[in-house]
């Protein structure tokens, strides 16, 4: 039972760090031989594993964090990497010192320079201790891997040190921050932490990867620490994040910061057993990280969820929370929370909707804290951005070429729809390119495991949707490729923000069609500079045929491709930014080729009608003519010249049905009757009567004559010969039928 004041994952996480700390260079230096050292490490590993199991088992019963033991470990591993890198840097510094000493000695001994080099490297091996056991290949890998960490250390913010907060922040928190390897505050941290510690409401905006998480977590922890919060006080801080992965990430940073505190922390989010979460909330979670939907559920249904003493509400990526349709939930959540509380909003971009939310939840006008450099440039300095203009059918060829050339890189490739991610994952897999994929329609377990696999990898390719665009702090991502431009233009900034984080460097490549260049104007307005680049794809001409073959032989992929193409069109149809994404500019043939189809697949009628409505049909210039040439849509949708107008029938389903039926009935009757076309109005009137007669029978025809009091003979003379013949035939038919009936009787 978790009744004591403690952080549930703390032990698990802490152990991970201990495990790493178990191999300090000094200890290794002392060991006499390699075997002894290896045995020692083994023992430590085993001991730590055993202890870890105990902890995990102990908490499995009571805490929700036990759902993510591996993820916690993995993530903490990646976070701890920074520390390890720091140590290695120190070690390398030592080794250089030693090497220079050696050189002096060698100079004294008049040895050759090359000898000196060898010796110095040998020395550095001794200093690093365990590195002698590591193969050179591994060392190279590690060096590469730590590149970004080195950059991070090199570019550690030169601002105020965290030590300056000594008077305001507890020693427990400061120690944890120091243990995380952070000495100086980033700009947003230096600006936001002091007013937040004073209890002010703050709306913070700063570039991606600038350390916003610590900026809101430190004051939130300090607030509860100063109030001596215990589990019996319930929840004092709620941190809302838009995605599950971001929640987990924030939660892990939180657990690191709470390492020396007795405050409790927990996480609730979609895709996790609610019963377990109920138990967790019953225990009293002081700092709670949550996704909006699940938080609302517990606020409405879990009686034990105690928020009476709620002090602080943090909304991370506030604009995204409203974008992804959580507006209603957020309004309800805010209505259910105590009015008197401190509120913090953080994001890399601003939105008008956030103003609305700010007005709803902040008691006074919030203090605007903004990274000054945002006014000059919306993205970080270490980021190189380029765009390539390509036609829809060439996009995949360029991507394939790009991935082939960057096999040893860590790459994220963004798509607009889940179906596109699934489809291209299948195709690349069939083309023997190993890729990971993540999207919103995946089960949570799969999503989490893929996320951690990508985090851990030195080089890997991750295909993803915008579910991965916000807040993910993945180490050493080299490239952000946007295969589809973002549906929401401001999402561009968040996508490219997954690289060049914390002072590091990275590159981004955007694929756009010529007609989508409106996005560049938007980006320019947002102070994002993107350079044009030309990328070759000529070598890949036969790739298109290979993809076609794959699709032909794999029905699953064929279906996925069709669905992905449909989703693409749907996204275009539904886009709010018609000035950038205009359906009229899409050439469906090229689009289909981009999805590996020779000719476009048959689309559902509903979508056909929607497309027909939107695309120019009168002129029949581009779309219809092109479609006709490959037979696309011609089966089901009439041509522009036809009297049948889709625009009329698309209003309601029932109406359209009627009109269609009437239309085809008229057409069929005209065909089967083979009646001559009427030459003048009089004849047209007679024709109508004749058709009426044919359709409804002679009886109805005569009854009509009776009603109007005009015998059929009255109009006889004006009838054309064909009409008279028809009348004669029907009369004959009638008498014949009568006589036959008599015979039967
Ligand atoms: N003071 C600091 N010094 C050095 N590195 C830091 C500091 N604070 C945070 N970091 C590191 O910077 C990286 C980015 O931090 P964080 O995820 O908080 O950024 P963010 O501004 O929230 O980004 P995003 O807008 O993408 O969510 C993390 O790896 C974190 O460990």
TrEMBL record:
Q: Which domain of life is it from?
A: Eukaryota
Which portions of the chain have biased composition (kind: Polar residues)?
Answer: 53-81, 150-161, 666-679
Q: Where is this region: Disordered?
A: 1-161, 643-688
Q: What residues does the Helicase C-terminal domain cover?
A: 382-549
Question: CDD domains per the record?
Answer: SF2_C_DEAD (cd18787)
Q: Which reaction does it catalyse?
A: ATP + H2O = ADP + phosphate + H(+)
Top EC class for this record: hydrolase
Extract one GO molecular function annotation from the record: hydrolase activity
Q: Where is the composition biased (Basic residues)?
A: 137-146, 648-660
Give the Basic and acidic residues compositional bias ranges: 15-24, 33-52, 112-125
Task: Give the E.C. number(s).
Answer: 3.6.4.13
**Does the record carry Chaperone as a key word?**
no
Q: Which UniProt keywords apply?
A: ATP-binding, Helicase, Hydrolase, Nucleotide-binding, RNA-binding
Keyword Lipid biosynthesis tagged: no
Stretches of the chain forming a coiled coil according to its record: none
Domain named Helicase ATP-binding: which ranges? 193-368
Q: Which family does it belong to?
A: Belongs to the DEAD box helicase family. DDX18/HAS1 subfamily.
Q: What is known of its domains?
A: The Q motif is unique to and characteristic of the DEAD box family of RNA helicases and controls ATP binding and hydrolysis.
Q: What does this protein do?
A: RNA helicase.
For this entry, the protein name equals ATP-dependent RNA helicase
Query: What is the native source organism of this protein?
Result: Halocaridina rubra (Hawaiian red shrimp)
Upper lineage ranks?
Eukaryota, Metazoa, Ecdysozoa, Arthropoda, Crustacea
Q: Which gene specifies this protein's sequence?
A: DDX18_2
């Amino acid at each position: 039972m978790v009744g004591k004041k403690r952080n549930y994952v703390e032990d698990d996480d802490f152990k991970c760090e201990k495990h790493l700390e178990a191999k300090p260079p000094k200890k290794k230096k002392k060991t006499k031989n390699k075997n002894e050292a290896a045995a020692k490490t083994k023992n430590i590993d085993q001991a730590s594993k055993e202890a870890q199991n105990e902890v995990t088992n102990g908490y499995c019963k009571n805490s929700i964090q036990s759902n993510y033991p591996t993820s916690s470990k993995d993530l903490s591993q990646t976070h701890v990497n920074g520390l390890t890198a720091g140590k290695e840097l120190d070690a390398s510094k030592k080794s250089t010192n030693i090497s220079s000493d050696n050189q002096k000695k060698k100079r004294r001994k008049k040895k050759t320079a090359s000898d000196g080099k060898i010796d110095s490297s040998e020395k550095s091996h001794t200093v690093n201790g365990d590195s002698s056991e590591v193969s050179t290949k591994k060392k190279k890998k590690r060096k590469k891997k730590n590149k970004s960490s080195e950059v991070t250390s090199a570019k550690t913010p030169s601002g105020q040190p965290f030590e300056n907060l000594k008077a305001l922040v507890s020693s427990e928190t400061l120690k944890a921050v120091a243990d995380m390897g952070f000495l100086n505050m980033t700009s947003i941290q230096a600006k936001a932490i002091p007013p937040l510690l004073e209890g002010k409401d703050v709306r913070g905006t700063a570039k991606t990867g600038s350390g916003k998480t610590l900026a809101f977590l430190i004051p939130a922890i300090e607030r509860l620490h100063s109030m001596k919060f215990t589990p019996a006080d319930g929840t004092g801080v709620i941190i809302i994040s838009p995605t599950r992965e971001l929640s987990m990430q924030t939660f892990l940073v939180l657990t690191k910061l709470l390492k020396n505190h007795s405050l409790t922390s927990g996480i609730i989010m979609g895709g996790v057993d609610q019963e377990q979460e109920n138990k967790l909330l019953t225990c009293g979670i002081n700092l709670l990280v949550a996704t909006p939907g699940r938080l609302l559920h517990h606020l409405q249904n879990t009686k034990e969820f105690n928020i009476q003493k709620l002090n602080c509400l943090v909304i991370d990526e506030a604009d995204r929370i409203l974008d992804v349709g959580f507006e209603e939930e957020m309004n309800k959540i805010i209505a259910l929370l105590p009015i008197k509380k401190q509120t913090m909003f953080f994001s890399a971009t601003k939105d008008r909707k956030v103003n609305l939310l700010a007005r709803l939840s902040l008691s006074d006008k919030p203090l605007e804290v903004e990274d000054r450099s945002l006014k000059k440039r919306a993205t970080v300095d270490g980021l190189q951005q380029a765009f390539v203009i390509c036609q829809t059918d060439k996009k995949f060829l360029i991507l394939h070429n790009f991935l082939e050339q960057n096999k040893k890189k860590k790459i994220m490739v963004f798509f607009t729809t889940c179906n596109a991610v699934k489809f291209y994952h299948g195709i690349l897999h069939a083309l023997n390119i190993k890729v990971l994929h993540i999207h919103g329609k995946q089960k949570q377990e799969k999503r989490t495991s893929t996320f951690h696999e990508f985090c851990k990898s030195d080089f890997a390719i991750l295909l993803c949707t915008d579910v991965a665009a916000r807040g993910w702090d993945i180490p050493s991502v080299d490239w952000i490729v946007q295969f589809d431009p973002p549906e929401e233009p401001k999402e561009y900034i968040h996508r490219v923000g997954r690289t060049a984080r914390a002072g590091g460097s990275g590159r981004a490549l955007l694929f756009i069609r010529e007609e989508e260049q409106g996005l560049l104007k938007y980006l320019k307005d947002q102070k994002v500079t993107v350079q044009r680049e030309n990328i070759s794809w000529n070598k890949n001409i036969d790739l298109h045929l290979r993809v076609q073959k794959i699709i032909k032989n794999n029905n699953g992929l064929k279906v996925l491709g069709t669905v992905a193409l449909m989703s693409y069109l749907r996204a275009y149809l539904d886009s709010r930014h018609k000035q950038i994404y205009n359906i009229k500019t899409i050439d469906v043939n090229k689009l289909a080729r981009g999805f590996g189809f020779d000719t476009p697949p048959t689309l559902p009628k509903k979508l056909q009608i929607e497309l027909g409505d939107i695309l120019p049909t009168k002129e029949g210039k581009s779309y219809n003519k092109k479609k006709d040439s490959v037979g696309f849509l011609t089966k089901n949708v009439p041509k522009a010249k036809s009297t049948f107008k889709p625009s009329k029938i698309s209003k309601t389903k029932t109406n359209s049905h009627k009109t269609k039926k009437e239309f085809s009935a008229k057409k069929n009757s005209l065909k089967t009757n083979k009646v001559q076309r009427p030459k003048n109005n009089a004849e047209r009137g007679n024709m109508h009567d004749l058709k009426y007669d044919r359709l409804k029978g002679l009886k109805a025809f005569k009854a009509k004559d009776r009603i109007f009091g005009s015998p059929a003979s009255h109009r006889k003379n004006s009838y054309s010969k064909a009409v008279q013949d028809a009348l004669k035939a029907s009369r004959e038919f009638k008498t014949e039928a009568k006589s036959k009936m008599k015979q039967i009787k």
